[in-house]
TrEMBL record:
PROSITE patterns: ZP_2 (PS51034). It holds the Pfam family D8C_UMOD. The lineage of its organism: Eukaryota, Metazoa, Chordata, Craniata, Vertebrata. Keywords: Disulfide bond, EGF-like domain, Glycoprotein, Signal. Residues 787-1038 form the ZP domain. It comes from Triplophysa rosa. Residues 1-21 form the signal peptide. InterPro entries: D8C_UMOD/GP2/OIT3-like (IPR057774), ZP-C (IPR055355), ZP-C_dom (IPR042235), ZP_chr (IPR048290), ZP_dom (IPR001507). This is ZP domain-containing protein. Gene3D superfamilies: Zona pellucida, ZP-C domain (2.60.40.4100), Zona pellucida, ZP-N domain (2.60.40.3210).
Length: 1073
């Protein structure tokens, strides 16, 4: 074919242009935010790339930032459509030119569909400038709503090895479980270096079991960590599902990782995709960090914090920020804050304070809310130290954080020296509550609340809303309210209201008495009734004021859930208060002789028992005040210093007893005279679990109190002495000496070194040194003393020997850092209890023994320098108990206790029981000699007491009966064999087995045909350790009850008796006529 020259030139030029066009400079752009694999898949979906007219090459963006097609699959990935498409292979390098990559997909509605769908391949090219271009084409038309996925990574202009945030969260470790802390609630931003109590740790690279790392699914790297020469790499993140059985049931969003000089890694953590996922740390990778040194400095100087503080104004810190309900804000973690000095709290610009009480499910923006354990000080008290507790759901004192200093300031506000909370507490957050005096008298400025359904006699079934429960958390409360019922003045009840009354499922009532006129505005606790207890939960406290005219006003706030404030139906107005200042009160006695009472301020007994101190925890000899012959009035002392009873909750097992007694009400003022106060005993995490007998109290000149103690209601109860409330015997005098804002304080004053110790300084830290007579022949034994009892253990060490080795007492803790030691007479005492204070105790079974293992851990303290720059103290100890036993010896005795060596043996006991019941609900146990008939159904419960029901279950292996008191007797009838009912006896039903520490079964009564009138019952059971399903046998070999079997009208057989040969009761069956 002949072509003219000009046409040839044109065709040649066109062909040349097509070949040389570089897609790196000739591309279209796509910027659709919904293509992001990191966005919520259900936020924006329904897009379909089959409907797009694709033409040529494309470069991806997300919100203006350069992006790339994803190489990684994420569970439930839709990328704006129903089927998210991603590259099945890595991106090419610059040197590779144009390559072809397969495209696969995952469906938005399934978590395990990664790679289950295949689309058409696409071409990819890497371009100078660190980006990629893609020749996208129409996806496979058989796919449902396919959409190309994109992911973007922020630039790393600063080396993340030197620009990261430290994340010390030991509760993320692979050996932690039991909580559900969800990482999607945290505010992730940037790079993080992981720590475990200050030591290096890294993410796991292998499978993590479901429910590990205190999350529903623990996240781990599906790929090895990089080397330093690899630079920044991207890794897939997997999570195992407890019921799924796989290691990578879920695929979370990929993250970037980098290896750093110094043998550590940094991670660019992002918000996980869905559900309760949590990044894990692998305890097998713990390594020591490089030691750092800080030059020693002079003694610290302290400035008046009332005029030198930082402002902390976070609305999310409010105690009204409940978990799971309105305003629920999570993601805050005060262990990540760089605390420096003193702070004054505000909420939305209004002055606030830390709460010195707790509310169920209090969040304060984090997972664990932190509150003061102890009342705020007065201006005259200066700087005081207060314990800080952390809540866990409805358990207010579940965690113990680091103590802080508090000071009351002129102008009616407080300042706090906030420090980094205990890192073992999951996402702790300091709480705040608005604080201040009303500008207008609420008695003259209130809203009338007249709603008859609030009546204490109105069950919510009777609401005209047809069984609708009223909920005050839907009300926008604002200011003060006065209660009425049908136009008649009313008040909130001060005692328990039955569940379901006041028109609501959960009625609210005051836990404390109403104030008097002279009390002004007071704060009162609010209880919420439930099925099992009057105060099943604590709602948010409210302010109350008594008003002239015999009525009250209340500053209502939103309760924690669907509950409603109650109003008393038949309210009797307050009797007027008559005050006479001229004469002291008189009392009438029987016989009615009027007399003037002797002032107890000058006629009291001195009570100076050191063991009553609130700081005395887990005292070895339990004390009980019910055995004391109380007579008259008493004044409290500790070590000769005047103290007072605590008027806030005291930790259980304090004050030398089980349930410490404290005043449930404020101490009176001098002008109040003699007042009566309720007394509470703390037990089972309930500050007022026991309500003891009320006592009378009086405030006396000289700043002290006297108490008219009476016998408590039970044992082991004992009155407490708050050794943090030292007072003087004379009114303190004041001076007009003016000082500058800064002054130097003596740090030895707060150490209280004993007569065998002396206070000194070591590397910038003050502590108690040992005198010569306290030197230990074994330098690293610290003069230890240990005991084991039941499922608990304790260990005490010499404080001065520890300090001389480089460890202050307050830096030591058990495996759970919330379990710190208490100082008593120069010794640091530690305790764990496997029922209420587990303290990280590890429980294992080896087939023959149960072993409780724990350790004391401490790192050297630094204050402008380190006591020890290298040493870490770790003292291991354990309690070992045999598992196999019989009922005649139903207690488990510890064989040995270890602290880097074999220590003297302790003793411990477990109770094994078998109880017969008359009914299938197991609510009516048989007691003593019981009437029964042949073929009558008997219900039996077999259980083990004194073990942790969260770690053990009881399994019945066999149960059998014999006609004589010998479990090995040749004549026997099997009821249960091989954990199953005997197939030859169809009356046996196994009702519960292997689900708790109690197992249950039933059978119909019978007798042996060999003229025997007695039946002995025996069971063999074993304890299963839930953590590894390893079980060891514990045998019940003795009879537990005795039942007389006869006709309904026949008298009991005279041979019916209890067997003295067995520690249990005889099952005595007499043949019916």
């Amino acid at each position: 074919m002949y072509l003219c020259p000009s046409l040839v030139i044109l065709l040649t030029a066109a062909i040349s242009t097509a070949v040389s066009s570089d897609p790196c400079t000739d591309y279209n752009t796509i910027d659709d935010y919904w293509r992001d694999i990191r966005q919520n898949p259900y936020q924006d979906y329904g897009h379909d790339d089959r409907l797009v007219e694709w033409n040529g090459w494309y470069r991806l963006y997300l919100n203006g930032e350069s992006a790339q097609m994803s190489e990684w699959c994420v569970s439930y990935m839709g990328c704006g459509g129903y089927t998210g498409l991603y590259l099945n292979g890595s991106h090419p390098g610059l040197e590779d030119g144009v390559v072809t990559r397969d495209v696969v997909g995952s469906h938005i509605w399934y978590y395990d569909q990664c790679g289950s769908y295949r689309s058409n391949p696409v071409q990819v090219k890497a371009c100078p400038g660190d980006y990629y271009v893609y020749e996208l084409i129409t996806p496979d038309v058989s796919l449902e709503g396919p959409s190309y996925c994109a992911v973007s990574f922020s630039s790393t202009s600063d080396d993340p090895c030197y620009n990261y945030e430290s994340l010390d969260r030991p509760w993320r470790a692979t050996n932690e479980s039991g909580l559900w802390i969800c990482d999607e609630f945290f505010s992730w931003s940037g790079w993080y270096r992981l720590y475990y109590y200050g030591m290096n740790i890294q993410m796991p690279e292998t499978c993590v079991n479901g429910y590990s790392c205190n999350a529903d699914s623990g996240l781990w790297l599906n790929g090895p960590h990089p080397q330093i020469e690899d630079g920044v790499v991207t890794r897939e993140v997997c999570g195992g599902y407890y019921w799924g059985g796989g290691c990578c049931d879920f695929k979370s969003k990929p993250i970037r990782v980098k290896a750093c000089p110094g043998n550590y890694f940094v991670y660019e953590l992002v918000n996980p995709q869905y559900w309760c996922l949590g990044y894990c740390t692998d305890v097998s990778t713990i390594s020591q960090t490089d030691p750092t040194t800080t030059p020693a400095g002079p003694n610290a100087t302290f400035c008046d914090p009332c005029s030198n503080y930082n402002i902390l104004d976070g609305y999310w810190r409010s105690t009204l920020n409940y978990m799971y309900w309105y305003g629920y804000i999570t993601g805050h973690d005060d262990t990540r804050v760089k605390w420096d000095g003193w702070y004054r709290l505000f909420i939305n610009g209004s002055s606030a304070q830390m709460p010195d009480w707790c509310v169920s499910y209090m969040s304060c923006g984090g997972f664990s809310s932190l509150w003061l354990f102890g009342s705020h000080p007065g201006v005259e008290d200066g700087v005081v130290t207060r314990e800080v507790y952390g809540s866990y759901y409805d358990q207010c004192s579940h965690y113990t954080s680091n103590p802080i200093q508090v000071k009351a300031c002129p102008g009616d506000y407080y300042v706090y020296k906030l420090t980094r909370p205990n890192v073992a507490i999951p996402a702790p957050s300091y709480c705040a509550v608005p604080f201040g005096t009303p500008s207008v008298d609420p008695c003259d400025s209130y809203t009338s609340l007249d709603e008859s359904w609030r009546s204490t006699d109105n069950h919510y079934y009777y609401n005209y809303y047809n069984y609708y429960s009223m909920c005050d958390y839907n009300v926008e409360w604002n200011g003060w309210y006065r209660l009425f019922i049908n136009g008649h003045t009313s008040q909130m009840p001060e005692s328990c209201v039955s569940q379901g009354m006041c028109g609501t499922y959960s009625p609210l009532y005051l836990r404390d008495p109403h104030p008097q006129l002279e009390d002004g505005v007071v704060t009162r606790h609010v209880c919420m009734s439930g099925w099992n207890s009057c105060c099943g939960y604590e709602s948010h406290p409210i302010q109350v004021k008594a008003c002239p005219g015999d009525y009250y006003v209340y500053e209502f706030v939103r309760p924690m859930e669907c509950a409603a404030y109650c109003a008393v139906t038949n309210f009797t107005t307050m009797a007027p208060t008559i005050q006479t200042a001229e004469t002291p009160p008189t009392e009438s006695f029987t016989p009615p002789i009027t007399t003037t009472e002797v002032d107890p301020c000058y006629n009291y007994n001195v009570l100076d028992d050191v063991w009553r101190a609130t700081s005395n925890q887990y005292y070895s000899d339990l004390m009980c005040d019910m055995n004391v012959n109380w007579e008259g009035w008493y004044r409290l002392f500790v070590h000769g210093q005047s103290v007072q009873m605590p008027d806030t909750c005291v930790a259980q097992n304090s004050c030398g007893t089980h349930a410490p007694l404290w005043l449930n009400g404020e101490h009176p003022s001098f002008e109040d005279g003699v007042v009566t106060r309720d007394v509470c005993g703390h037990w089972i995490n309930d500050c007022c679990y026991f309500q003891s007998n009320p006592i009378r109290v009086k405030a006396c000149p000289g700043d002290y109190y006297v108490y008219e103690f009476v016998s408590p209601t039970g044992c082991y109860f004992a009155y407490c002495a708050d050794n943090f409330t030292h007072t003087t015997t004379e009114m303190p005098t004041t001076t007009e000496t003016k000082t500058r804002m800064c002054s130097v304080t003596d740090p030895c004053l707060s150490l209280n070194c004993t007569e065998d110790e002396w206070c000194g300084e070591r590397h910038g830290v003050h502590g108690c040194f040992c005198k010569d007579n306290q030197t230990s022949p074994e330098p690293h034994s610290f003069d230890f003393s240990e005991t084991c009892e039941s499922s608990s253990g304790s260990l005490s060490l010499s404080r001065c020997q520890l300090f001389e080795a480089g460890f202050s007492a307050h830096v030591l803790h058990l495996n759970d850092p919330g379990c710190r030691g208490t100082i008593q007479n120069g010794r640091v005492q530690f305790h764990f209890d496997n029922n209420y204070q587990i303290c990280g105790t590890n429980l294992v079974a080896n087939g023959t023994h149960i072993i409780y293992e724990n350790f004391i851990l401490g790192t050297p303290e630094s204050v402008a320098g380190l006591i020890s720059r290298e040493k870490i103290l770790k003292l291991n100890f354990s309690c070992i108990y045999p598992q196999t036993q019989t009922l005649s010896m139903i207690d488990i005795n510890p064989l040995e206790t270890i602290l880097h060596r074999i220590l003297p043996a302790g003793e411990g006991r477990y109770q094994v029981r078998m109880v017969p019941y008359q009914d299938s609900e197991f609510s009516q146990p048989f007691t003593g000699l019981v009437d029964a008939e042949l073929n009558h159904q008997i219900f039996v419960e077999v259980g083990v007491d004194g073990v942790d029901s969260r770690q053990f279950v009881t399994v019945i292996d066999t149960c059998w009966a014999t006609p004589v008191n010998d479990p090995d007797y040749s004549l026997r009838w099997d009821l249960i064999t091989g954990e199953c009912p005997n197939p030859q006896d169809n009356t046996v039903e196994l009702l519960q087995n292997g689900v708790s520490t109690s197992s249950r079964f039933s059978f119909r009564m019978f007798i042996f045909s060999s003229n025997s009138t007695k039946v002995y019952l025996h069971c063999s059971v074993h304890l299963c350790l839930l953590t590894n399903n390893y079980c060891s046998t514990v045998t019940l070999l003795c009879l537990l009850f005795c039942i007389s079997l006869h006709s309904r009208h026949e008298r009991p057989h005279p041979d019916s008796h209890f067997s003295s040969a067995c520690s249990s009761v005889l099952l005595d069956l007499l043949k019916s006529r």
